[in-house]
């Protein structure tokens, strides 16, 4: 085994960052001759750092990928009652994934331990020694400091209060851990494989029990200095409005969320309904339900006028139960933005509904892609 030459290292970097490639593509990417790439790949293959994933004997064109021997990447994502783990090669090829279903009442410590056990189990199932895991992407459904892993104490974060998930996984698995909010990561999945495909600047908005958002530009989640960007649900619509779980009054999620809409329906009619009932009432053109649905879309549209003025996204993708189950919701939001945003923004921004059906799996996989876009990770895994 030999030390890697600079060109060999560049080749491995290209595979990690861009995924498996043909020799001809690698020659173009590295700006070297095909003969040089053939020599490089022969040596790297002999040393066990790369492989031909779908090798067909006699075929000249075979894809080249990194071998698990060079290392693997992990992604773990927590939502209210699920934990999804994905393992991949350094070139992004999927090795295994699994989703644990739990109850929302499980303690944070138990949830984390179950997640780490699942990583161990998937590694063992694929005959991977613990040392082959090189980096972990961790997504949690709360506000976590992306630098320190601290969870900030407030009611909205109570499920995670008192633990530091970033420290826990770094210690337990012995690898660098990179963190992101689950909702922001969902946005990246939609950007990579859903409605966002083909766009370079996307604002993702998820509207269900709360409202969250993620701004993705050039393939990177713009999550701010410490990961605190994207809390659209706690932008204030009316400082004299209903009290919010965050301590302020009149936050967007007090107007545009399933609990808020159901609360207002009960206030208006005296009848308590669940979300399925409410959707049925909208379909049946019940006056109160229809006007509450319309108001929710208008309020979200107004807030998004402000957001679009600040960010000027190419496309706004709206996801979540409210957007997906109320037929005219996304169109009503779009109409408000078009009517009230300044022309440069309002005439050009597209407002679309999300597409991804299996959001869990796609989101955990987006964690892997996030790792492959981090220069520090790419350098570490290709330095042998
Ligand atoms: Zn709030």
From TrEMBL:
Residues 4-52 form the HTH marR-type domain. The keyword Transferase applies. Gene3D superfamilies: 3.30.420.40, Winged helix-like DNA-binding domain superfamily/Winged helix DNA-binding domain (1.10.10.10). The keyword Transferase applies. GO terms for molecular function: DNA-binding transcription factor activity; kinase activity. It comes from the Bacteria. Keywords: Kinase, Transferase. PANTHER family: GLUCOKINASE, ROK (REPRESSOR, ORF, KINASE) FAMILY. Belongs to the ROK (NagC/XylR) family. This is Sugar kinase of the NBD/HSP70 family, may contain an N-terminal HTH domain.
């Amino acid at each position: 085994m030999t030390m890697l030459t600079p060109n060999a290292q560049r080749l491995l970097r290209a595979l990690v960052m861009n995924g498996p490639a043909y020799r001809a593509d690698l020659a173009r990417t590295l700006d070297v001759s095909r003969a040089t790439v053939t020599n490089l790949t022969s040596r790297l293959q002999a040393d066990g750092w790369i492989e031909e994933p779908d090798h067909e004997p006699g075929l000249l064109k075979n894809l080249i990928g990194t071998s698990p021997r060079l290392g693997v990447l992990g992604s773990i994502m927590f939502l209210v009652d699920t934990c999804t783990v994905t393992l991949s090669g350094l070139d992004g090829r999927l090795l295994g994934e699994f989703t644990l279903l739990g109850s929302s009442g499980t303690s944070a410590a138990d949830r984390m331990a179950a997640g780490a056990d699942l990583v161990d189990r998937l590694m063992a199932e694929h005959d991977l020694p613990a040392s082959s895991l090189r980096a972990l992407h961790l997504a949690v459904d709360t506000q976590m400091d992306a630098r320190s892993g601290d969870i900030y104490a407030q009611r909205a974060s109570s499920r995670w209060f008192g633990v530091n998930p970033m420290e826990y996984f770094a210690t337990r698995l012995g690898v660098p851990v990179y963190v992101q909010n689950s909702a922001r990561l969902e946005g990246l999945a939609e950007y990579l494989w859903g409605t966002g495909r083909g766009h370079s600047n996307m604002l993702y908005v998820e509207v269900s029990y709360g409202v969250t958002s993620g701004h993705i530009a050039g393939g990177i989640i713009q999550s701010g200095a410490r990961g605190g960007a994207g809390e659209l649900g706690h932008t204030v619509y009316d400082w004299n409005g209903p009290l919010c779980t965050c301590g302020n009054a009149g936050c967007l999620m007090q107007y545009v969320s399933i609990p808020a809409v159901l609360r207002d329906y009960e206030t208006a009619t005296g009848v308590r309904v669940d979300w399925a009932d409410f959707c049925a009432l909208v379909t049946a053109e019940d006056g109160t339900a229809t006007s509450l649905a319309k108001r929710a879309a208008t309020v979200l549209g107004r807030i998004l006028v402000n957001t679009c003025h600040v960010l000027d996204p190419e496309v706004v993708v709206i996801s979540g139960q409210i957007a997906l189950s109320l037929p005219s919701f996304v169109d009503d939001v779009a109409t408000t933005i078009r009517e009230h945003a300044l022309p440069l923004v309002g005439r050009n921004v597209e407002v679309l509904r999300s597409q991804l059906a299996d959001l869990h799996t796609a989101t955990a996989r987006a964690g892997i892609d996030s790792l492959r876009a981090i220069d520090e990770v790419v350098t570490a895994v290709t330095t042998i």
